[in-house]
Amino acid sequence: MCLEAGIDFDFTIKGSDFIEEMSASLAGSLFGTKPPTFDAAIVNPPYRKISTGSPERLHLRSAGIETSNLYAGFIYLIHRLLAPGGQLVAITPRSFCNGPYFRPFRENLLASLAIQQIHVFESRTAAFRNDGVLQENIIFHAIKGQPQPAEVIISSSSGNHDGAVAQASVAYAEIVRPNDAGKFIHIPSASHHTVAKETMAGLHTSLASLGLSVSTGRVVDFRLKSALRQEPEAGTVPLLYPCHFNGGTVHWPRTDARKPNAILNNAETRPWLVKSGLYLLIKRFTAKEERRRVVACLFDPAEVIAEWVGFENHLNYFHAHGQGLEKNLAVGLYAFLNSTVVDQYFRRFSGHTQVNATDLRQLAYPDRKTLLAIGGEMKQLDQPQNELDQLVEKHLHARP
Question: In terms of C-beta density within 10 A (0-12 exposed, 13-18 middle, 19 or more buried), how is residue 66 classed?
């Protein structure tokens, strides 16, 4: 192509391990060579988690880089190899944009590189359909050693080769909020997401100020495999998975499901169980194509009678300092978290299909009075989405 266009082009294909070679160079290893300097890098790094004792992790650590994913390791190395003013264009998973695991990576990235443009794909299957990669990917363009711009170009497309591209300029302060200690990277992808952001910006109540907490389910099933039971029996208590969600309430037991329904209640398992009470459960993992990213369900001890209960690790649960919630507050939270405005806002700032406890703690909530009012008006948990949205919006807009 360059020849046909009259462009001189030389290339070198390196067959060595990039992580190993560049880490050694940057670490000043006795066996390492002087690190190269690049004016530009266009990269599609591999997406794979790396364990603590893996060769890749040890190589990166020797260069002062600590990360649990290969793509982050590649980006760390590359931006250190860029010359001042050097440019980086990378297609990576979107997962680094939020969450605690990638916070050091975000801090390093934003301190070293000025974000110019971010492109998002509406489908997580289209970009790499031939490789069977199911990731929510983005492309970002950044320049080394410059201050962050006043505005960032945000573009989006379906991911298909012939798909139209839409773009807009967004204030950098909207992408990375000045007072956000976590350095979350927010990526708006549609106009209604902006409306959701404006609505959520009017909320200032934290979960802690409501006297509530959210935790990840304590039961990691493969670690307690011998204590699991497919069906309830004497000496067991309910064990809940996402498959037990049913129209806003818990359907237990599910004898038609592949997941176990019960766990032994003994000295070994008791630390991983929760005293029964009224809890709000949230799925930790959803498919991007699901109707809602945040899926909430109410666990009512009147419907599943037990002294203790196990929440599996694929669930988050809201509680009041380890105890159950009061009814109207729990129902109000249920309605708020299942609302379209929260779903759109969460999709805007969340870079992956996980809903982590940290994400839920970062969220702003209506005040207690508003949540209690919403909960008091809820006639049924499985009401149509438009009715739930109208109820939530009415109370949010009625706030003083």
Answer: middle
Asked if residue 314 lies in contact with residue 242, where contact means CB atoms within 8 angstroms, the answer is: yes
Residue pair 89/119 in contact (Cβ under 8 Å)? The answer is no
pLDDT number for residue 316: 96
* DSSP-assigned beta bridge partners for residue 139: 91, 119
CA within 13 Å, CB half, 122: 12
CA angle at 156 for the pair 150 and 157, rounded to the nearest 5°: 160
Strands 262-264, 249-250: pairing kind: unpaired
Structure tokens at 397: 């807009």
243 DSSP assignment: G
Question: In whole angstroms, what is the distance from residue 385 CA to residue 356 CA?
Answer: 23
Say if residues 376 and 389 touch (Cβ distance below 8 Å). Answer: no
Closest-CA residue to 67 (of 23, 21, 120): 23
Instruction: Answer yes or no: are the C-beta atoms of 237 and 247 closer than 8 Å.
Output: no
For the chain, list the domains and their CATH numbers: 18-189 (3.40.50.150), 208-397 (3.90.220.10)
Q: In whole angstroms, give the CA distance from residue 274 to residue 214.
A: 13
Which residue reads 């080394």 in tokens?
Answer: 144
Q: Provide CB contacts within 8 A for 58, sequence distance 6+.
A: none
Cβ neighbours of residue 124 closer than 8 Å, sequence gap 6 or more: 134, 135, 136, 137, 288
253, 286 contact by CB (below 8 A):
no
Task: Yes or no: say if 227 and 160 are a contact pair by the CB < 8 Å rule.
Answer: no
pLDDT of residue 192: 53
Distances from the Cα of 323 to the Cαs of 212, 214, 240, 275, 317, in angstroms? Answer: 9, 11, 17, 7, 11
* Ranges of the chain with pLDDT below 50: 351
Note the pLDDT of residue 133. Answer: 55
Q: Quick one: pLDDT at residue 396? A: 87
pLDDT value at residue 100: 80
Question: Two tokens at 144?
Answer: 């080394």
Write down the pLDDT at residue 193. 61
